[in-house]
């Protein structure tokens, strides 16, 4: 982890979140003065479950995972993945002042840590900004509900199919993507053992529903994959 030598002015940021586009120029300038821009290496901890949530995390570059820790580190439950332009920690604005999860990088990443107190001030002053944050928070809540249903009501093949659909549609936005998750991380995202996850992936490959070319996943039969996700 290292503090960036050049901190981007928010108003000139190419990765600016749609939320921040609702702010006036002087409000963006204030955000710039109350943030720290940090470069993280792959697999670095960004936020620790149970620690004070003093900052909102904005992903300028890179890819991170959000997960709930268990007593056994191999059995952590991954809740979601976030890439460039995402905001993490919005729950600390309205409810808890501690992180209810941990956040770690999956690739070398550049993150902006913005003081929660400054975001709260903008929520009060700018209603459009507040609504935009609420929409993002609502989207995360809906995903959590869907994830809970997938993990408790579906068989293994249904879970892995749902995971691939989510990754293709909501994370990588393509039916062909590099699977930067390890098999263990994919297992933690679907609440199964690594061996079971590998078996389920192999089943989908044998049926030619997906292909895996040196870590490049391609969904070959989206219709069947959706059916397995729905009824599996």
Sum this structure up briefly.
The chain has 232 residues and is of the alpha+beta class. It has eight helices and twelve strands.
CATH architecture of the largest domain: Sandwich
Please identify the structural class as seen in this structure. alpha+beta
Strand content range:
15-25%
Strand order of the largest sheet: 1-2-9-4-7
Report the CATH topology name of the largest domain.
Jelly Rolls
CATH class of the largest domain: Mainly Beta
How many domain modules? 2
Q: What level of helicity do the residues show? A: 40-55%
Number of strands: 12
- Largest sheet composition: 5 strands, antiparallel
The N- and C-terminal alpha carbons lie at a distance of 42 Å
The H-and-E topology, N to C, reads as: EHEEEEEEHEEHHHEHHEEH
Key attributes of the depicted protein:
232 residues; Jelly Rolls; four-stranded antiparallel beta sheet; alpha+beta; 2 domains; Arc Repressor Mutant, subunit A; elongated; 42% helix
Q: Can you walk through the features of this model?
A:
With 232 residues, the protein is an alpha+beta fold. It folds into 2 domains: 2-135, Jelly Rolls; 150-231, Winged helix-like DNA-binding domain superfamily/Winged helix DNA-binding domain (Arc Repressor Mutant, subunit A, Orthogonal Bundle), CATH 1.10.10. The chain has 8 helices and 12 strands. The chain has helices spanning 25-33, 91-94, 116-125, 127-153, 156-171, 183-190, 194-206, 222-231, and strands at 2-3, 35-40, 45-47, 55-61, 63-68, 77-83, 87-88, 102-105, 109-115, 176-178, 210-213, 216-219. Strands 1-2-9-4-7 form a 5-stranded antiparallel beta sheet. A hairpin with an 8-residue loop joins β5 and β6 (77-83). α3 crosses α4 (127-153), α5 (156-171) crosses α8 (222-231) and α6 (183-190) crosses α7 (194-206). It is elongated and about 55 Å long. The model has no long low-confidence stretch (mean pLDDT 88).
